[in-house]
Structures are given as structure tokens and as C-alpha cells.
Write a structure and sequence with these properties.
The protein has 408 residues and is α+β, with helices and mostly antiparallel strands. 22% of the residues lie in helices and 26% in strands. The protein starts with 25 loop residues before the first helix and ends with a strand. This is 8-oxo-dGDP phosphatase NUDT18 isoform X1.
Length: 408
């Protein structure tokens, strides 16, 4: 098991530099902070398909008209799309799937970091994923394991460990629980995601036992010395690290009153660490969602970079990079609410993950603005959500932060 807060494993080389379009300076497109991160403004041809040859996802539909000139793109596209029933219906289906915790195939990336050719992520080579499980029984007791490793031998911790190549996220969690606690289990829901940049990510689950026998001191091995149930308000000492206290409380709160629907990883292929954005702007009871136009209208995807700046800034840097490419951010407030879902395959050397992220965009000085901020790129536009059910779902998830939290 990796040490909590261990530094991420670096090594993924970002994709190649492309020159800006004629007449457009990179300085005009990017702020100084994002220039330092080595990012670029999206080029009309930059919406490239996945190198793995992944298919088209549900809800990503062909545009109904040729790309509009940059000037006036928001006004033309935003009002043209609702009049196209097929395109609007496709986006509504895609949004419904994502809000329901389902996955959509990753076809391509709308925003990528500047650098060397894109390299697929590989566990134990350039990324490290960790799984951790929280168990609470009817007596409000927590399942803990006693560490066997020399540097923390005798201390107590939640069942946790690194994922192995070829595993799904759930399979890794189940293996770690069996090895360290002796129990078979099943996940209830993803509880939180912790990250130290895209190269180190920990997935925290609420889980329940389904069988097996609790590991005793007579069965001590290199994985653990023993396992046991302990009152949540009176945990044994010493603890290996106190970060478990927060996730234990999070699990107890979820069991008392669930803040988000049950969410489990969906087994879909992806070659990079990326985020699909449900970027929203709200006005009264109207909700707008940012849509990418590269290829076919779709929820935009931003690939996470492995530069030192993106490692230090975390996965939010990739979100800001995409938004910087199409919006003027200095007068906007951007808040990443959390995860609506998670996608990962694990088999066939597909170690990438796609996090479906809910993002709120608002004016820093809200007044009487009833329309979203103007899009300054032909690669994106705001789509007005017309279906009442979708509107209410989005408003509820935004207002109640009904998402899986992401923390650093």
C-alpha cells in the first residue's frame, strides 16, 4: 500500500506543440498562468480521435450545419441547435446518461496540454491508482486492518492498496480487502476521489462484506497482521495516518443521508487521464451546458497533463485550460462541484480513466445577466437545456452539490 500523500509517479509525456492559427497570437489566447502550464488554445483540427480507435459514444451526434465563423458563434449556434430535434435529442440523451452515472465512450479530446506526442497511461509506469474501502456495520463499527509493512508495522488503517495492471477498479478493491481483511465484499458506492495531480489518484469506496472469514493474528502475513471491527468513536491506536478519520465520517454521513446517487465505475476504455465536463451556467430556472463542436456536438473532454505545473495544480488545471480556450475567465467564477461518474476498463492495457465532472460557471459580479458568457471560439457553444426534467436534475445536483467530492 502506498503511503498516504505519497508523491505522484511522473513520466507521461504530453502531446506535440501545434502552431496557432494565422493571425492569432498564443499570448492573446492564454493567460500568463496557463501559458506557464504549457497549454494551448484549441485549433479547429485539434479534436483528434483516440489513438486506440475507440468508437463513437451515445449522445454524440453530427452537427446540423457547417461551423459558424468565430464572430457571433454563440448567438447563431445557441439558437440553431434547439431547432434541430435530432441534435438536441442526442445531447439530452448524453446528458441523461452522464447524470445517471453511466458512461460514454471517449472518442477524442477537445483540449490537450502542450508538449510531446501523447502517450497512453500505464499503471506502475506513469500513473498510480489506489483503492480504499470503508466498512461500517449495524453496530457503528469500522473494519480496520493492522499493518505488516516494516515502516508502519503494528499501526491500524482501512483496507487499501495499489491497483495492479489488468484490474478494474472494483476488482482491485475486492482483492485488497480479501488479502488484508480476509473478507469478500461488494462496493456500495464511490464515496470520494483524492488526487495529487493526474499521476496519483485514490478511489474511496463505501463497501459491505458478502462472505469470507475475518483475518486473525494466526493468519498474519506480508499483507497484514490481522483485521478487526472497532467502534467508530473509539478507534485503536496508533493509526497509520489520520486521513482515514475524514473518510470514515464521510461514510457515516452517507449512510445517514446520501448526498449523491449510488455511483460505481463504468467499464469503458480510455487511454489517458481525462475529464468530461458538464459545464453549466444558470439563470433563474434556465440551465445552459457548454458543448464541443469538434466532429459532432458533444460534452467536451479535456486531457490531463503531466507537467510539473499540472501535477502541482491538480486535475482542475485541465478544466481551467479548456474553459480558458473558449471563455474570458477573468470576470468569471469557475467551481468544480465533483464527479457525476467514473470510467475505466483496465483490460487490454487500457489504464486511462475518464471522470465525468460537474462544473459551475458564473459571473463574478452577478447582475441581470440572463445569458451565459460569450464563447470566443468556434469549437464550443452554449446549449440551452429545454427538457424540464433535465433542468431540474441539473439544478438539484448543482444546488445540493449532489456529486462525489474530489479532494487534494
Amino acid at each position: 500500500m502506498p503511503r498516504p500523500g505519497a508523491p505522484p509517479l511522473n513520466g507521461l509525456a504530453p502531446p506535440p506543440r501545434r502552431p496557432p492559427r494565422a493571425g492569432q497570437s498564443r499570448q492573446a489566447a492564454l493567460t500568463c498562468s496557463l501559458s506557464a502550464a504549457g497549454v494551448r488554445r484549441a485549433h479547429p483540427c485539434s479534436h483528434r480521435p483516440e489513438a486506440s480507435g475507440e468508437g463513437r459514444g451515445r449522445g454524440t451526434l453530427r452537427r446540423s450545419a457547417p461551423r459558424t465563423p468565430r464572430s457571433g458563434v454563440w448567438g447563431v449556434l445557441a439558437h440553431r441547435l434547439p431547432g434541430d430535434p435530432m441534435a438536441s435529442e442526442g445531447l439530452a440523451k448524453a446528458l441523461t446518461a452522464v447524470l445517471g452515472g453511466q458512461g460514454l465512450l471517449v472518442q477524442s479530446y477537445d483540449s490537450e496540454p502542450l508538449g510531446n506526442p501523447r502517450v497512453p497511461v500505464r499503471l506502475r509506469k506513469n500513473v498510480c491508482y489506489v483503492v480504499l474501502a470503508v466498512f461500517l456495520n449495524e453496530q457503528d463499527e469500522v473494519l480496520l486492518i493492522q499493518e505488516a509493512k516494516r515502516e508502519c508495522r503494528g499501526s491500524w488503517y482501512l483496507p487499501a492498496g495499489r491497483m495492479e495492471p489488468g484490474e478494474t477498479i472494483i476488482e482491485a478493491m475486492q482483492r485488497e480487502v480479501k488479502e488484508e481483511a480476509g473478507l469478500h465484499c461488494e462496493p456500495v458506492t464511490l464515496l470520494s476521489v483524492e488526487e495529487r495531480g493526474p499521476a496519483w489518484i485514490r478511489f474511496v469506496f463505501l463497501a459491505r462484506p458478502t462472505g469470507g472469514t475475518l483475518k486473525t493474528s494466526k493468519e498474519a502475513d506480508a499483507e497484514s497482521l490481522q483485521a478487526g471491527w472497532f467502534p467508530r468513536v473509539s478507534l485503536p491506536t496508533p493509526l497509520r495516518a489520520h486521513d482515514v478519520l475524514h473518510v470514515i465520517d464521510l461514510a457515516a454521513q452517507y449512510l445517514q443521508q446520501a448526498r449523491h446517487p449510488l455511483i460505481l465505475p463504468q467499464e469503458l476504455p480510455c487511454s489517458l487521464v481525462c475529464q468530461r465536463l458538464v459545464a453549466t451556467f444558470t439563470s433563474v430556472q434556465t440551465v445552459w451546458v457548454l458543448v464541443g463542436t469538434g466532429g459532432m456536438p458533444h460534452l467536451p473532454i479535456t486531457a490531463c497533463g503531466f507537467t510539473s505545473v499540472e501535477q502541482r495544480g491538480g486535475i482542475k488545471v485541465a478544466v481551467l485550460r479548456l474553459l480558458q480556450e473558449c471563455l474570458t475567465l477573468h470576470n468569471l467564477a469557475v467551481e468544480t462541484k465533483g464527479l457525476l461518474g467514473l470510467q475505466h476498463l483496465g483490460r487490454d492495457h487500457m489504464d486511462g480513466i475518464c471522470m465525468n465532472v460537474l462544473v459551475a460557471v458564473a459571473f463574478r459580479n452577478p447582475g441581470i445577466e440572463e445569458e451565459p458568457p460569450k464563447v470566443r471560439s468556434e469549437n464550443y457553444f452554449w446549449w440551452k437545456v429545454m427538457e424540464e426534467d433535465l433542468q431540474s436534475q441539473l439544478l438539484q445536483r448543482l444546488q445540493e452539490s449532489s456529486v462525489v467530492p474530489v479532494s487534494r
